Each structure stands twice: as structure tokens, then as C-alpha cells.
Design the sequence.
């Protein structure tokens, strides 16, 4: 990812021809303010004001040309009206931090839910947390970024395909008062998801940017399981306000959770807490509790790592049945102790997201 230089970006942009002038946009002196940050690229294309409206294809072509460079994670080109006296202000590249917030206008904070490995209940927790936020009156979106194995259509009991009013931007699907977008709505369930990296990235970008999310207090992003390069790159693609790590109590999973922490540190995203799922077994017959795994491991580990322990969710057949039937426990059994736990964690996270937002200086990209 390192090693990308301004001259590489300019060389790529020399391939882009201004349709009216028949020459490349670099040669014409239209490109200004190239910015590079960890693989995120931003630049401005200066055009005469009256040509602006019809030059969207040129802007897109410029982004495409730079996206093709190796090591590039995201590209933002903006058209700016030429003003000889005042040079155009270049855009900030998309990356973590305040500038990137402009990526999804109207969305106040974005929370990633991650796990070290699959099958620990990450999606179950993501869905119930999202519904927990909604139970507190927040406007919530849920982006299923688990592109290889999307589970939100099933978990939220949503079928069908998203529509579009203008043929460009998709309407999100919704149920139980939250909006949702998932690859599962766009690709039939039996399609093998053998996606190449760049396709996954553009699918994620589209689900983020080309969906009419509207005003949201919080967008919950269900990341694919694992803490490898793919997840790291995805975490970098989304302007995250914070992350939650879901772990089971087994030691091995905890080792993975630690990797997750490191991953988010690398991309400068605060880890707001750890959730211990399948923490203990709640017997459906007698109501008794059994600590199948050495329960409490996540709490101890969180303390050791200086990360907040958000709470524990037991292994309970009711949680499995409800999430697999598309009626997550927070909406189907709102009076249960488990729903209470999820709402409590959502309240705590809403609090933490709010204060993270107050601390971050907000730079508005024009
Ligand atoms: P992941 O997203 O980590 O792969 P899922 O959320 O899809 O995991 O959960 C895997 C399976 O475990 C699902 O069938 C789900 O219903 C079940 N499950 C998750 N959490 C619990 C729990 N606390 N108690 C019982 N079953 C659970």
C-alpha cells in the first residue's frame, strides 16, 4: 500500500481525455490538489462552471483510472468550477477520521461488528444491537458487509430485491424499523460468492454510497469474520466511528479477538468494547446455568487489554431459533433478559459513539 506517489496518480490521469478538448486532463492543467493517505486518494478536476453538469462521466473516468493503480483503496475526484483568482480547495482523501465522514452524508456514526472467526454469533449480535439502538429511538441502518456469507436477509426476515426510484441509487430494505442492505438481496442465495478482492471492495462501496440511507443516527456494519487483510482493507474502506468485537469464551477465540484489536488499532478505529457471546449455557428446561466453556475469559481479557467489556450473552436455544427464523430476540421477546442485555449494550455504545463524535473535529468536504 505504501509507495504510491503523486506522479503515479498523475500518470494514470494522463490517460483521461477531456471530451470537449481532445487532450488529457493533466496536460490541460485541470488536475489539482492530489492528496494521498494510506492508499486513499483525492484530487480536484477544475472545469469551467458551465461545463460542470455534463462532466460527471469524466469525473468517474478519472476515478476509475486511479482505482486501477495497485495499492489504491479508494479514490475521490471532485469537479470544481475554475476560478482564476481563488484556487480550488482540494478534497481530503477518504480515510479514517473526520474528513471521511462526508463519505456517507446523513449518517452520524458507523459502528463495525467484528469477530476473530466465523460462527461466534457476530451477525446475531449485530442484528440484536441494531434493534437495540432502534429500541432506544435511534434511526438505524444495518449494512451486511459479510459479502461472502450474508446473513442479514435471513436474520431480519427480509426477502425480495431493493428497488430504485431513479435507476441509480438503491432503496434500502427494511424491517422492524431499521434499514438494511446486504449482498444477499442482490445475488441469489445459491450463487457462489467467489469474488475477487476489487469486486468485493466495489460492492461494499456501492452498498455504502449508492444506497439511499437517508438520515441515520447509527449504521451498524456486520464485517466478514476474521482479522486478515481482507477485513483490514474493508475496515479502511468504511469511515468507522468505532468497532465492537464479538468473542466466545474459548481461549482460542480470545487469541483471535486480540488480533481484531490490533487490526482496528492499525486503521485508527477505536474499539468500543468486547461482547462475550455463548458465554454460558441457559437450560431451556430448568432455567439453570452451566458454564460450558471457561466463562469470563472475555471479561478478563478485555480488562487486560484496556478495552471495555460490554456484556455477556448466554448460549440459549431461543437466541438461535429467533435469529435463524428472522425474528431476533430483541423484537420477538423484548421482555426477555437477553433482549435487556442487548438493549443495555446498545445504550452504552450509543453513549460512547456520541462522545467519540463530540471529540472528533468535523471537517466538511466541499
Ligand atoms: P457469525 O456471524 O459469527 O458467523 P452467527 O451470528 O451467524 O455467527 O451465528 C452462528 C449460529 O449460532 C447461528 O445459528 C445463530 O443463531 C447461533 N447463535 C449465535 N449466538 C447464539 C447464542 N447466544 N445462543 C444460541 N445460538 C446462538
Sequence:
Amino acid at each position: 500500500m505504501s509507495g504510491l506517489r503523486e506522479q503515479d496518480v498523475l500518470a494514470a490521469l494522463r490517460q483521461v481525455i477531456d471530451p470537449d478538448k481532445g487532450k488529457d486532463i493533466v496536460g490541460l492543467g485541470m488536475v489539482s490538489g492530489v492528496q494521498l493517505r494510506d492508499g486513499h486518494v483525492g484530487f480536484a478536476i477544475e472545469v469551467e462552471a458551465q461545463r460542470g453538469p455534463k462532466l460527471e462521466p469524466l469525473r468517474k473516468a478519472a476515478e476509475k483510472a486511479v482505482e486501477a493503480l495497485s495499492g489504491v483503496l479508494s479514490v475521490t475526484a471532485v469537479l470544481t468550477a475554475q476560478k482564476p483568482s481563488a484556487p480550488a480547495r482540494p478534497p481530503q482523501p477518504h480515510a479514517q477520521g473526520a474528513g471521511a465522514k462526508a463519505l456517507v452524508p446523513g449518517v452520524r456514526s458507523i459502528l463495525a461488528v467484528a469477530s476473530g472467526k466465523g460462527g461466534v454469533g457476530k451477525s446475531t449480535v449485530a442484528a440484536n444491537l441494531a434493534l437495540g439502538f432502534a429500541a432506544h429511538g435511534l434511526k438505524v441502518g444495518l449494512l451486511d458487509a459479510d459479502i461472502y456469507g450474508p446473513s442479514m436477509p435471513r436474520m431480519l426476515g427480509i426477502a425480495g430485491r431493493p428497488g430504485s426510484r431513479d435507476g441509480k441509487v438503491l432503496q434500502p430494505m427494511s424491517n422492524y424499523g431499521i434499514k438494511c442492505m446486504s449482498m444477499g438481496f442482490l445475488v441469489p442465495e445459491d450463487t457462489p460468492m467467489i469474488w475477487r478482492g476489487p469486486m468485493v471492495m466495489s460492492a461494499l462501496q456501492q452498498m455504502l454510497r449508492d444506497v439511499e440511507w437517508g438520515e441515520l443516527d447509527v449504521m451498524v456494519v456486520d464485517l466478514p469474520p476474521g482479522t486478515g487483510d481482507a477485513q483490514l482493507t474493508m475496515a479502511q474502506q468504511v469511515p468507522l466511528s468505532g468497532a465492537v468485537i464479538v468473542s466466545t469464551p474459548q481461549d482460542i477465540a480470545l487469541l483471535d479477538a486480540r488480533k481484531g484489536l490490533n487490526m482496528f488499532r492499525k486503521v485508527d478505529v477505536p474499539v468500543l468494547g468486547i461482547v462475550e457471546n455463548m458465554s454460558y449455557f441457559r437450560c431451556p428446561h430448568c432455567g439453570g446455568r452451566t458454564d460450558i466453556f471457561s466463562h469470563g475469559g472475555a471479561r478478563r481479557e478485555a480488562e487486560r487489554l484496556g478495552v471495555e467489556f460490554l456484556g455477556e450473552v448466554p448460549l440459549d436455544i431461543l437466541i438461535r431459533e429467533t435469529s435463524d427464523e428472522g425474528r431476533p430476540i430483541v423484537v420477538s421477546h423484548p421482555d426477555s433478559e437477553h433482549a435487556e442485555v442487548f438493549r443495555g449494550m446498545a445504550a452504552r455504545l450509543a453513549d460512547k459513539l456520541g462522545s467519540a463524535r463530540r471529540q472528533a473535529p468535523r471537517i466538511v468536504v466541499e
DSSP finds twelve helices and twelve strands in the chain.
